[in-house]
Design a protein that fits this description.
The structure holds two protein chains of two kinds. Chain A is α/β, with parallel strands linked by helices. Chain A has eight helices and 15 strands. Chain A has helices at about 1-10, 20-30, 60-65, 75-80, 125-130, 165, 205-210, 230-240; strands at about 15-20, 40, 45, 70, 90, 95, 100-105, 105, 115, 135, 145, 175-180, 180-185, 195-200, 215-225. In chain A, helix 1 crosses helix 2 (about 20-30) and helix 2 (about 20-30) packs across helix 8. Chain A starts with a helix and ends with a helix. Chain B is α/β, with parallel strands linked by helices. Helices cover about 30% and strands about 25% of the residues of chain B. Chain B contains nine helices and 13 strands. In chain B, a hairpin with a 6-residue loop joins strand 7 (about 140) and strand 8 (about 150-155). In chain B, helix 1 (about 5-15) crosses helix 2 and helix 8 crosses helix 9 (about 255-265). Chain B is globular. Chains A and B meet through helix 3, helix 4, helix 5 and helix 6 of A and helix 4, helix 5 and helix 6 of B.
């Protein structure tokens, strides 16, 4: 459901900077179903990739073979991302907090001696800063959804409304967080993430239990529509083609 | 003009103990054979630079070749963690590893500054992140024209860059294509360079999307077929995904890693330097 909900958030014609894993699955599913003209950009230097299977990594050869253009890594970041040419940054997260800040660096508060050393920043800090908006797709649990991240690798809404402007960040930041339980959106007044949509069969209490802060629920809470047969068939076909 | 040498000669002449070494290749064309030759020759105290220290640097770190790592993303792509890297950072095994951590945009711009002969690069990055608290090669700077606050990062000028490419001619002109990553910038930023290639040919045929490194911009070229394996060389062979998955269990334990070094990097019967 998470991949399908994330794919639905991507609409046609948009230019989308895609991270590997869940974002890549969702972006490829969207391109295969309702958004065939979605433009996929990978940080390895491919603009407009059209793979017919899921790439194994951001540098899978199929991304270069099916791209409109293959460019260098400095060019991706300097010419395409930094000036704001990309509509949506699509990221995953190891840890996410109630203002949508992302940690992919270390778990624990001692950087030099962490509990868990994660891969690090990669392209995410500037993707989160410069895309017009950011979608985050992440599995929800008390461990991953925390009051405040241990390390700010990529800025969401900082410590609240107005922080992005103060920091000089150009895009709108995370406008959508899609999880295996539902969808969260920032409150327009405070920028705190609130539950705005529940996936089929999920109760509000269940989402609260999987959240490490006192989760607020939108007064307009809606339900995610069940996956269609077409969506499920396409998701299965994509996964099958990737084996 | 680039000299055509063997891999062992190239590493022996260009990579010295204590050097800053950049081995690049963004998923594609990673110079694995050269990395293993550096282990074989027992280099120590290297400062390793790489945007994505994946398996190649896990091997060099586990073998004790490195004292410092400058990077922006460390992991086994699509698989998980780098266990040798973590063991070195967290437990100092086999030698302690200092880290200097950036974002991809920061690293790419550091190479661009190095290749451009400038002391630093400017980018709109890092603002609001915790990275500048721990990395003293990230500073704030004010634009003299607009007053905007931006990030400045110093140029990278490694002692030696090592990359892999598809082809070279006998004069040492190098041709590469597909995902070209940051390899051209790494070579131009470095004082010396070693390019391993799939094949040396009499004449380079033009290829769409190619990058040419002219012979005079490269120090040495070595013909090393399959030199990027387990990564891939577009037009020559595919990525060995099974190897990346197997690495997770080989790299996880010190014993299995050492056994791998003895079996796969050193010829059977060779005496292995242990630290």
């Amino acid at each position: 459901m998470m991949s399908i909900a994330a794919a639905r958030a991507l609409t046609g014609g948009k230019r989308c900077f895609v991270g590997i894993g869940l974002p890549s699955t969702a972006a490829n599913l969207a391109r295969r179903t309702h958004a065939p003209d979605l433009v996929l950009i990978y940080e390895s230097g491919t603009l407009g990739s059209k793979p017919d299977r899921l790439p194994a990594s951001i540098g899978d050869g199929i991304l270069a073979e099916t791209a409109d253009a293959v460019i260098s890594v400095p060019e991706v970041f300097n010419y395409w991302l930094q000036p704001g040419r990309i509509d949506i940054g699509f990221l995953g997260a190891a840890q996410l907090d109630k203002f949508g800040n992302i940690n992919t660096t270390v778990i624990g508060d001692d950087y030099a001696n962490p509990k868990v050393r994660l891969p690090g920043a990669g392209g995410a800090p500037e993707i989160a800063a410069s895309c017009r908006e950011v979608f985050v797709v992440v599995r929800q649990s008390k461990r991953s959804f925390v009051e405040q991240v241990d390390f700010v690798t990529s800025v969401g809404h900082g410590r609240g409304k107005g922080d992005r402007e103060r920091l000089g960040l150009r895009g709108a930041g995370p406008t959508l967080v899609i999880t295996d339980l539902g969808v969260l959106r920032p409150d327009p007044e405070t920028s705190e993430l609130v539950l705005s949509q529940l996936h089929p069969g999920v109760e509000v209490e269940q989402v609260r239990e999987a959240t490490g802060w006192e989760l607020k629920v939108s007064p307009e809470l809606s339900n995610t529509e069940a996956p269609t047969a077409e969506e499920l068939a396409n998701l299965r076909a994509l996964k099958e083609a990737s084996k | 003009m680039a000299e055509i040498v063997s891999l062992a000669d190239g590493v022996g002449r260009l990579v010295h103990d204590g050097d800053m070494v950049a081995m690049e290749g963004f998923t594609h064309l990673i110079p694995h054979a050269a990395g293993q030759e550096i282990i074989r020759q027992g280099r120590e105290n290297l400062t390793l630079v790489r945007m994505t220290p994946d398996i190649i640097y896990d091997q060099l770190i586990g073998a004790g070749c490195a004292r410092k790592l400058v990077f922006s993303w460390g992991g086994n792509p699509g698989v998980g963690s780098l266990h040798r890297f973590r063991d070195a950072v967290q437990n100092g095994w086999p030698v302690p590893l200092e880290i200097e951590e950036h974002s991809h945009a920061g690293m790419a711009n550091r190479y661009v500054a190095g290749a451009s002969g400038l002391p630093f690069a400017v980018l709109r990055g890092y603002s609001g992140t915790d990275l500048p608290k721990h990395t003293d090669t990230i500073k704030q700077i004010t634009c003299p024209f607009t007053g905007e606050r931006l990030a400045a990062v110093p140029a990278l000028n490694p002692d030696v860059a090592v990359i892999h490419a598809q082809r070279a001619d006998r004069a040492g002109n190098v041709q590469m294509w597909g995902l070209v990553g940051v390899q051209k910038e790494a070579v131009l930023a470095s004082r010396r360079s070693l390019v391993t290639v799939e094949e040396v040919v009499d004449e380079l045929e033009p290829v769409p999307g190619q990058v040419i490194l002219p012979s005079w911009a490269v120090t040495c070229v070595a013909e090393v077929p399959h030199g990027a394996h387990p990564s891939y060389a577009q037009g020559y062979y595919e990525r060995d995904n099974a190897y990346y998955e197997e690495w997770d269990s080989i790299g996880r334990k010190r014993d299995s890693f050492q056994e791998w070094v003895r079996e796969k990097v050193f010829a059977a019967g060779t005496e292995v330097k242990t630290r």
